[in-house]
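Note to self: keep these together.
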Amino acid sequence: MKRRSLVLVVLAVALGAALLRVPVWTAQILSGRLARVFHRSVSIGAVRYHLVPLQVEVTDLRIAGATPADEPFLEVPRLAVTPSLAPLFDRRLVLTRVVVERPRVRVRAFRRGGDDLPHITLGGPGREVQIRRLIVAGGELELDHQRVPLDLELPDVGGRLNQRRPGVLAGTFSFGPGPARFGSAPPLSLSTRIDLALEGPNVTIESGSLTGDRTDLTYRGRVSLSPHLGAELGVAGQVDLAILDRHVLASDLGIEGHGQFRGTVRLDQGRLRVAGRLDGTRGSFNGVAVPRYAGEVSWDEKGIRVRGLEASLLGGTGKFEIEVPPAPGEARVDAQLEGIDAEEAASHLFDIGKAGVGAGATGEVSVRWPRGQRRALSGRAALDFAPRADGRTPLTGRLVWRAHEGAQFVEEAQLQTPGAQAHLKGPVSIDRKTDLEVEARSNDLAATDELLLRLRRALGARATEPAGLSGAGVFEGRWRGPLAAPVFEGRFTGEDVAYLGVRWGHAEWVGAFDAREVRPHSLVLRRPGGELWVDGRVQTGDLGDEDGIDARVRIVNWPAPDLVKALGWEVEVQGLVSGEATLTGRRSEAHGAVHLASASGRYYGVPYEDLDVRAALHGRVTEVTAGRARVGRRTCPPIPRVAAG
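Structure:
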């Protein structure tokens, strides 16, 4: 019994010692096998086994460089492998999870030819390997001292290589379907399968497929490991541009569309380039719908370039040259346009609203802007407008425009609607303030007023109201102030002009006006037998709400009902009046002094003659300070105080 007990103790000690040596033996076996594969010295810091969950952890794995003085070809600070116990009785090796942390691969290409890649030798029959999830975190591929980040998360990775003939290994590689992540972009569900052959430094991809959400591509080609790392693949198939932009390109330009791509993918000394022809439908670029498009597209480390892109958009067609570099680079668009909707184009290009103007634009546009700063626009445009009969106000004319870093200049704008013509020229500053020369003519001021109202709202002034003008006229002056709240200064001459509900006849005006008020420095209104002069300020809002007044008025033989109506007074009076007045406060509650004379008329139905009145206005009360009038055959003295409203 004692001998048996001793034997058991010895066996237990030996087994325990063996178990303690398993990690060391594993490190030695793994480093030896890797050394035979790569023909380089291999070192491993440690191997650890974890039982719950079952996991093998390898730390400080290094595969040496081409010479002892070179940095390591491969460094992996930590490699964690979680095996699966399911396929124990076949030749498959199934790993539930493989995590490679901060790997660094170094490759140099020599000027005289060749590189320092190790010569790989795989011996024995191939064995299928399946990795249900492969994660590469914080890695780097250093090609001739240029670093390429490596961050991947690939599902269901699998592969197998067999010897096809001496010196040639062939087999398959696949992953997915499942989420794959490219850098910091959101994960994308993909799957791929590749049939390949490995001969010396060359890998031939005999056939491959890449499938995902609305994406189905096939590819074939060659990958070269010497004299430098490179690849050239032919690619063809269906691609969804929105998915590509969101998960790979990350251009933040809202690229969308269902396209057919045929082209090449090249890798040359660490530089990846995709180039080919893209034809598609239901596209979108920066929010602009592009129903059909076709052109040459390329993508590399310098960004996206599109050449000879012919597209239908905005109700017309265009031919485009586009460059979109990585942020913070400068994007550029050069376009030849034919019949596109001018209002839609201006809305997208300048980030403004729509005024209901119908025109097709034809001409050339060349613009550029820093990525993410579309308002810092620079460029030129020359466009001719043709009217569109689509229910909007038809517009004809021509626009020549330029911009520099957001500051704009209208070199020429000749615009015409059925009721008006306008010529504009001048700058619009980067903070959207205008100083435009304006020469405008309208044979329908009411229609022009309504169009200007829509234009102001499109430019950002939401709480605007019509000025209330009608008639016909000519304005010469300047358009100043913020783009969303224009101020017009200059000279106006009009015929059959109506304002504040009154038809004033011929008008000659010098001053300024905006959406809220008219500021005449000299306003002369004439109708047969009568004249009226106004200087000052009159707000055009409703009575009691933005109806301020600060004006000096001189009157010659003007109908009294017109004046009462314009001022909003509730006084019943008839007859021609002459005189002068100074008015302040509100139209609804005016203050000031009035001197009026009238040869004859009626006051609340009572006829009078030889009226001469001086009065002081105190809001809703009028104080008659002096005056006379003859009613019938009697001359009446003035009444000291009269309620006017």
